[in-house]
Amino acid sequence: MARAECIRIPRTRWTNSSFKNSFFATPDELIGTPLFLLFAYAGTEVANIQSMAIQSKANTSTGLDSNTTTGGDTGCSLGVLLYIGLFFGFSPMVNI
After folding, report:
1. What CA–CA distance (Å, rounded) separates 77 from 74?
2. How far apart are alpha carbons 46 and 8 in whole angstroms?
3. What is the pLDDT of residues 41-73, one digit of tens each?
4. What is the pTM of this model?
5. 66-86 in b/e burial notation, b at 16+ Cβ within 10 A?
6. Cα distance between residue 60 and residue 36, in whole Å
């Protein structure tokens, strides 16, 4: 018995090539990675807004100029850390 040939649509051989996959994956990576970092950074900055307000009251008396979410002056807020973690988790979901 002879092996049956597969009927192919004309000019579609390129759809199975690794060049095509790399051609489309490269711009996606170049655009997606900075967007992921931008969204995660924006979420972290939004979470730090409250700590900036608390520290601005403390900084007027002590003269310190540091901004942190889990510093010794502000303490560790579980809600803020969860918010930052959710932003880092949802950021790739938005980009995909």
Report:
1. 8
2. 53
3. 998 888 888 666 665 665 555 555 555 655 566
4. 0.61
5. eeebeeeebeeeeebeebbee
6. 35
